[in-house]
UniProtKB/TrEMBL annotation:
Protein name: Peptidylprolyl isomerase
InterPro entries: PPIase_dom_sf, PPIase_PpiC, PPIase_PpiC_CS, PrsA_foldase
Pfam families, A to Z: Rotamase, Rotamase_2
Record domain PpiC: where: 181-282
Record keywords, A-Z: Isomerase, Rotamase
Entry keyword annotation includes Isomerase: yes
Length: 539
């Protein structure tokens, strides 16, 4: 009854708030015209780097403190803790692996003769759904796939395995060999960039061209991938990402790979992850329809107890001799949690109630008991407590604030430089571009306010927003863009052909009203939360 009463009160409040939000005819008319107008514009886009190197814009300690104080409300956070820890992972031993392999070896004959694969797999496998499943090489690690799809094995009636595959042993019973969708194997070198920064994109493209040149001159792809690739998972394997289907990678990557031939080296390909150079190493369309018995390679009781003894011995030594000294003497790596809250995941570790319980009860400098988890054992030392309700001004935050202040100073300097150019008598884009070799004029038609897209240039919402509010034929003052500033001239604006404005208004009005209501609700409840005394009663 109390729950229903509260829900009715909330519903009544929301209905009352809804009546306070309206869309005026002027608002609706402006939105409709912007949405269906297409703009043509010319502009010179100038990145922040044009203002000069970062060293030209020094940041003082008092500026960092002032920025921190003035933005403190944006840095609110729950109470947090930091800790150093030594981790003793539960890794199955070679003996544990051999035991699981032997278990599956003992099932080969029985599995080959059973008439009811479904019942057999349900009883014997860690994956009871593995009956009459169609597999390609992409469903296995490269090493396991090489064994499974070996021509001698890949035939109806074969029993393949046990095959080690990513922490499991798999025993497969082949019923059919069929042709499926093609899969590919490839390696790549990935360089990441900030898509909002044209300057960053240009730098990364330049670096990628250098790497491509090294490959063309005969340098090892594997060596260059290990040295340069920012995909840490594949870089250690020389860039190898194994086998994959067309739909399991982003479209641009798939198009580059599946339109190539084995042994081909693609030119740099841009995706949402960055720029890739791809080496295509193979294609395959063979599929096997199989039932399989799968067993996870788990650490045995003996392995678990061995790890527990190591963790306990270290904990006792750390209690007597100190955490850092003990870790150094035992050559054990010390990791850091970073800041974490009572109800937030810990970097690398994830959610863990036992670690949270220690961290939020201990004093700074305290050493934990041995903490047991599914992954292994942790011994931790609490290194920091923050109960202020705000993020502390630590070294990492200082670096971020410094970068933001440098960016702000560059913006001021660049805006001033461009303003002086546009303010000169008779100034035009053409005259300004002719006076500086670093400037070039971008001309674009069919610019859309709806998505911020500029054909031939990319997405830049601040720039398009500014263009949509300009008068035709007039050189603008500096306009802020995603990556710097621009000088702009709106050449023309036209209403998209065939648009019925009355019908468009009818379609847009409900969405616009809903958006205004949601914004109003968000602001209202944010204001209520700010003035309310809220107590966290979670355990």
């Amino acid at each position: 009854e109390d729950i229903v009463r509260r829900e009715l009160k909330v519903s009544k409040l929301i209905r009352a708030l809804q009546t306070m939000v309206h869309v005026s005819d002027r608002e609706l008319d402006a939105v409709v015209k912007r949405e269906y107008t297409r703009f043509s514009a010319s502009f010179i886009s100038v990145p922040l780097g044009f203002a000069g190197p970062d060293s030209k814009f020094p940041v003082k300690a008092d500026e960092i403190q002032k920025y921190y104080d003035s933005h403190k409300e944006l840095l609110k956070q729950p109470a947090s803790r930091k800790a150093d820890y030594v981790f003793f992972p539960l890794v199955p031993s070679a003996k544990d692996s051999s035991v699981v392999r032997a278990e599956l070896e003992a099932l080969r004959t029985e599995f080959s003769t059973t008439k009811n694969d479904s019942d057999y797999v349900k009883v014997q496998s860690d994956r009871p759904s593995g009956v009459d499943v169609q597999y390609s090489r992409a469903d296995f690690s490269p090493a396991a796939g090489a064994v499974v799809f070996n021509s001698a094995n890949a035939k109806p009636g074969s029993i393949i395995g046990p095959v080690a595959d990513n922490g499991y042993y798999r025993l497969l019973k082949v019923s059919k060999v069929v042709t499926g969708e093609p899969v590919a194997r490839a390696s790549h070198i990935l360089l990441q960039f900030n898509p909002a920064s044209r300057e960053d994109v240009a730098k990364v493209r330049e670096r990628m061209v250098e790497i491509y040149g090294k490959l063309q001159s005969g340098e090892s792809f594997e060596a260059l991938a290990k040295k340069y690739s920012q995909d840490s998972g594949s870089a250690v394997k020389g860039g190898d990402i194994g086998w994959f289907g067309r739909k399991s990678v982003v479209p641009e990557f798939a198009e580059a790979v599946f339109s190539s031939r084995p042994g081909a080296l693609t030119r740099p390909v841009q995706t949402k992850f960055g720029l890739h150079i791809i080496k295509v190493t193979g294609f395959d369309q063979n599929n096997l329809v199989c039932s399989e018995v799968v067993r996870m390679i788990r650490p045995s009781t003996e392995t678990v107890e061995s790890a527990r003894r190591l963790a306990t011995a270290f904990q006792m030594q750390a209690k007597d001799q100190g955490f850092e000294k003990s870790a150094a003497s035992e050559k054990l790596p010390v990791a850091k949690t970073g800041e974490f809250g009572k109800h937030t995941p810990i970097a690398v570790i994830g959610f863990n109630d036992k670690i949270n319980a220690f961290a939020f009860k201990a004093a700074e400098g305290d050493l934990s008991d041995v903490i047991e988890t599914e992954k292994g054992f942790y011994v931790m030392r609490l290194t920091g407590k923050n109960d202020t309700g705000y993020r502390l001004l630590d070294d990492d935050l200082k670096k971020r604030i410094t970068a933001e202040l440098v960016r702000e100073k560059k913006e001021v300097a660049l805006e001033k430089q461009l303003a002086s150019l546009s303010a000169k008598p008779g100034a035009t884009l053409e005259i300004i571009a002719a006076g500086n070799k670093a400037f070039s004029i971008v001309k674009a038609d069919d610019i859309r306010w709806t998505d911020g897209y500029i054909p031939g240039y990319g997405i830049d919402r601040p720039l398009v927003e500014a263009i949509s509010g300009m008068k035709s034929g007039i050189l603008s003052r500096p306009v802020k863009t995603t990556g710097g500033y621009a000088l702009v001239r709106l050449d023309k604006r036209v209403l998209a052909a065939g648009v019925d404005l009355k019908e468009a208004k009818t379609g847009i009005l409900p969405n616009l009203l809903r958006a205004k209501q949601e914004q109003f609700f968000a602001e209202y409840f944010a204001s209520v939360r700010k003035s309310a005394a809220i107590e966290d009663l979670r355990p």
